[in-house]
Design a protein that fits this description.
Helix content is 24%, strand content 28%. With 491 residues, it is α/β, with parallel strands linked by helices. The strands form six sheets. Strands 23-22-26-20-19-16-1-21-25-24 form a ten-stranded mixed beta sheet, with helices on one face. Strands 2-5-8-9-10-11-12-13 form an eight-stranded parallel barrel, surrounded by six helices. The structure holds alpha-L-arabinofuranose (AHR). The site of alpha-L-arabinofuranose has 10 residues, from loops.
Length: 491
């Protein structure tokens, strides 16, 4: 029998809400059409933001939003996106489809979106094609509360009070689309740029994030930590789950069992990445003050046929739900070092939580996983030990169960469990040491590996009650269906 021992009296770190963060880029229909439709749209909106989408995001307690990119950030000139919309300068979005960007969604609109969602703000500045002055002035524009050229300009544009910038990223992927720099060169650039991110708001310090490695580039981490580790609050990490290879990524729908297991196996590589990058960071920052910020992660499949290849639109199935849950559990387990993570991307792009088509909106299986995990936010990670053998399918060996457990301030224990097998039910005996359960509520997301929601059938996959458990004096016995994610709230 599989066993999970939860020591409810021993905590192992704080699970920051930002671990369940998100990313929205000027890419395809993420911003335009997905989040923002403009004040004059017939689609119900508040100050241009879609009401249906904002409500759905509030419902999952979206904690922090990264913007404006991605690769777009290193070509974005923020001054083009403020002031009267009719006179805003247009630009070509060279990375993403070569479409014309009219800059109607800019700084003011981003803060308005975050205000409506009720989330923190994570801005990425332009190092690749921008200047130190441009970045310095953006920070002044957003956060200075006195008389200054940029603060005055903000006020002229209708926003009297400064905003709160919670996180500021100094460039994006400088090893690639952000300027093709070497680690040594970028480390110097980081040191210079970050100097001019002034802390105007003594009540709201901006946390500075350096652009970190591409997947397993451990040398990059070493160089950045060695040369600039003392000047940063976080170092980013980007890792996408691509089932095959970057040329032939594989289809988001109509995939095989082998593709399913290969995808899960690839996504579990996140565990090794966090351990190894974390170990390097430990050498320079043993107190773990610098967070590892996984600000791009998720599945990346071939774009849906018939859609603009530069828009990265893909459907989202139960396989994506499993990827989301496996990663969120991994992040919880590494919460001492992982201070934030941002799935890519929020709406209509890559592993999206939400898909839209004109006025219609559907929630994806990934959305429902975030809904199951939201109760971990701001909890303490609990000491837990799982005894469950791995299982093998073809050439892939995977854990038969994966978990993470936390305790909320009110004493409720939250457990999230994943059963990746497509065939096997997993019975699990959970012992809650130090807690005799009186009340247990379960919810789950489950289905066939390629189940997904469509605009014709929007409710094929949803979260639903989970009742396959019996409560015992020292814990509970649960039975996890194949291909499922389960959340238990135990009091
Ligand atoms: O999320 C899509 C792109 O992937 C981002 O713009 C970039 O940072 C990464 O390569």
């Amino acid at each position: 029998m599989n066993q999970l021992l939860i020591n409810t009296k021993v905590t192992k770190g704080h699970i920051r809400k930002e671990i369940q963060g998100h990313f929205s880029e000027h890419l395809g229909r993420c911003i335009y059409g997905g989040l923002y439709v403009g004040e004059n749209s017939e689609i119900p909106n508040e100050n241009g933001m879609r009401k249906d989408v904002v409500q759905a995001l509030r419902d999952v307690q979206l904690p922090v939003l990264r913007w404006p990119g991605g690769c777009f950030a290193d070509e974005y000139h923020w001054k083009d996106g403020v002031g009267p919309k009719e006179t805003r300068k247009k630009m070509v979005n060279t990375h993403w489809g070569g479409v014309t960007e009219d800059n109607s969604f800019g700084t003011h609109e981003f803060f308005e979106l975050c205000r409506q969602i009720g989330c923190e703000t994570y801005i990425t500045g332009n190092v690749g094609s921008g200047t130190v002055q441009e970045m310095n002035e953006w920070v002044e524009y957003m956060t200075f509360d006195g008389i200054s050229p940029m603060a005055d300009w903000r006020k002229q544009h209708g926003h009297e009070a400064p905003w709160t910038v919670d996180f500021f990223g100094v460039g994006n992927e400088p090893w690639g689309c952000g300027g093709n720099m070497t680690a040594e060169y970028y480390a110097n650039e980081y040191r210079r740029y970050q100097t001019y991110i002034r802390q105007y708001r003594k009540d709201a310090k901006i946390k500075k994030i350096a652009a970190g490695p591409n997947a397993d580039d451990y040398k990059w981490t070493e160089t950045l930590m060695k040369n600039a580790g003392k000047m940063m609050d976080g170092l980013s990490l980007h890792y996408y789950t691509v089932p095959h290879d970057w040329k032939h990524k594989g289809s988001a729908l109509g995939f095989t069992r082998e593709d399913y297991y290969e995808t899960l196996k690839k996504t579990l590589f996140m565990e090794e990445l966090l351990s190894r990058h974390g170990a390097i960071m430990d050498q320079y920052d043993p107190e773990k003050k610098v967070g590892l910020i996984v600000d791009e992660w998720g599945t990346w499949f071939d774009v849906e046929e018939g859609t603009n290849p530069g828009f990265l639109y893909q459907q989202n199935t139960m396989r994506d739900a499993m990827v989301a849950a496996l990663n969120l559990n991994i992040f919880n387990k590494h919460c001492d070092r992982v201070h934030m993570a941002n799935i890519a991307q929020l709406v209509n792009v890559l592993q999206a939580l939400i898909l839209t088509e004109g006025p219609d909106m559907i929630l994806t299986p990934t959305y429902f996983v975030f809904k199951l995990f939201k109760d971990h936010q701001e909890n303490e990670l609990l000491d837990s030990h799982l005894l469950a053998p791995d299982f093998t399918e073809g050439k892939f060996t995977l854990p038969s169960i994966q978990e993470s457990c936390s305790i909320a301030p009110d004493g409720t224990v939250h457990v999230t469990l994943v059963n990746p097998s497509l065939d096997e039910i997993q019975d699990l005996d959970i012992q809650t040491q130090g807690l005799s359960p009186r009340h247990v509520v379960g919810r789950m997301v489950t289905g066939n590996m390629d189940d997904h929601n469509t605009f014709d059938q929007p409710d094929a996959v949803e979260d639903q009650p989970f009742v396959s458990f019996t409560v015992k004096p020292d814990g509970l016995a649960v039975s996890l269906p194949p291909c499922s994610v389960v959340h238990l709230a135990i009091k």
